[in-house]
Every structure is written in structure tokens, then in C-alpha cells.
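Cross-posting from the modeling subforum.

Setting up a comparison between two proteins and wanted a second pair of eyes on the formatting. Protein 1 (sequence, then C-alpha cells):
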Amino acid sequence: MKTEAVLFDLDGTLVDSLQLIIKTYRLVFAEMNIPWGDDEVVKMIGLPLKDIGRHFAGSQGPFFEELYQRHYLREHDLHTRLFPGTLKILEKLKACGIKLGVVTSKGRAGTDRALTLTGIGSFMDVVVTAHDVSRHKPDPEPLLIALKRLGTAAARSIYVGDSKFDVLAGQRAGTRTLAVTWGLGTREELAQLKPDGLIDRWEELAKYI
């Protein structure tokens, strides 16, 4: 079946920003005197900041979010870059007439800043952020909204991400789902979810188109 659209998660998939995210959470936890427990925070990356703030800070969730945004945006431009090969694969897909989009649990301001800084915003036909939906990944709503805006059927689309939340959202939305191995999830963890494919290098995406 012909692929008409390829949708991507942002952090950990297109953009190498996970170390910045973890560093920012550590700063927030320290300022709010919240114990940092092993991988608990890392396992939640991919969910909206609001949900993570509520989980760890309770009624202080809004302050948690405010602190996070302050630290994150201060160092964003210094620690945000594309993964190797990202720009080239977007150029190839666009040249083939495939619609492209970003579906992320990041907020609108942070998403726009990352897309502008890295120069990939111009490739995207649709961008869906945490501020555009009422239910978030792993719920399929963000993907379904993106597909509706593109006018493309799920069966003719691919969703590419790096976390379990991405794989589950794609499966529930009915897209083919690919997991990259250079982001948040390990190859073993992602393989257990049975995505349609695992990608170790962007060049491998072509065989699924």
C-alpha cells in the first residue's frame, strides 16, 4: 500500500534533546526538594509535562511546570540539535511527495522553538502538540487529529517514534508504526511492543515507504 504520510515524534526521534530534558528535570527536582528516584522520571518522558508535574509535585504541579519551562528554555538553544541524517531523510521524503508531520507531547512554544532552531519546521505539513489535544499519547487522539488535518487514512500512514508511548499511540490509531533505537527506549523494550519495524539508522526508513 502506498505511503501518503509519515508522522514523527519530536524529542528523541528527530531532535537530540533528551539530555537537556533530563538535566532540566534534575534542576526542578532539586529546587523543589523532590527526591530523584532512579529511572522513574526517565520512564515518564514522552508524557505531557503537566502530567509529570502533577505526578511528582501534586498541587504544586503548576509551579513545577513553570520552573521546568524557565530552565528548559534558558538552555534550549545550546543543547538541541538534529540526530544525524534527519535533515536528509526529510528532504528525501518531501521530494517523493509524502506529507510530513510532527506529533509530540511537548507544548506548542517548545515545539515551535525546536522546529525553528533546527530548520525542520518548513518540512512539516502538520504539527500537533500537547496544547492541541485533550488526550495524549499513548491515546491515539493526537495522531488521529494529525491525519484528519492531512486528509490521509491511517492505513496509508506511518508513525515514527522512540518510546513505548509512541508505538502504542500509532498502533491504536491504526498507522504502521516504526521505532527508532537512538532515543528513549532500548531496542529490547521497543521490540516487545511489536512495532512494524525497528530502525537503527534513518536510511532504513526507505524500505517501509
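Protein 2 (same layout):
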Amino acid sequence: MGESTAKKNKKIKFPGMRVVKTVLAVYICFLLSFIRKTSPFYSAIASILCMQNNHENSFKTGKSRMIGTLIGGMYGFIAIVGINYFNIELFNYLHYLILSLFLIPIIYTNVLCKSASSSYISCVVFLSITVSHGGDTSPLLFALNRVIDTLIGIIVSLFINKII
């Protein structure tokens, strides 16, 4: 088969439904964040990570992400409060050591909850809370908003995958 014949046989491929659903879910997260006057970053990322090829797989992934988000959020709040209470300077070797050591109970809690697959999202949520929190808002509000943002992305993704 010559090169010109091979070029003729190539068809333009359009995005599949998973791509379309992902784009729609991200857009809805953007709109919800606009209404809530928050950053869409966490909800958009969560919606992308949760979107699967069908509703059943998305539901399993979403459940794991919700468990991981709640665990990571809880530990993120505890870490911020503890670091503030002991007046530990942010973004130095001690602060980073404490954050790193927190990953041990986070992963262990996921295992105890029989949700080892949610360990990575727990760690991501924990780090997104503890590393990006700059003391500009209350630790509880900051952690709670990150958890809400992530849950919004998961729920939007599940909803879109269910109806389309």
C-alpha cells in the first residue's frame, strides 16, 4: 500500500462521549465556581479524575474519591490547626517534615476504612490544603472549602455520566 493510499484511508476521528462528558462536567464546575465566587481548580480536577467510561465505573471511582477527600480534608484541617497552634514557621524543613509525616496516618486511615484505593486522593487533598493555605483565612473554612470544591467536581461528574 503506497503512502498516498494510506493517507486516503485515514479518517478524521471525533472525540468520544467520555471526552464530551468530561468537557461538559468541567464547564459546569467552572459555572458553579463562578456562582460561588471560588476558584474552579479543585472541582474541575475532581470532575476530570472521576469521569469514567460508564456510570457504574464513575460511581465506584467517585465513592473512592469522596472517602479520600473527606479523610484528606480532615487531616489537612488538623495539620493546619496544629501548625498554627505550635507556631511552626511555614515552608521550611520542619514544616515539610511534619507534612510528610502526616501522610503515614492518612494512608493508614484509608487502609483501616478498607479504601486503600482512595489513599492517593487523600494525600492530594491533604497537600492541596496544607501547602496552599497561607493563613489568609480560617483553617476550618479553608479545609472545608477545598473539600466542598472537590465533592462538587465528583458529583458533577457522576451526574453528567448518569444523564448522558
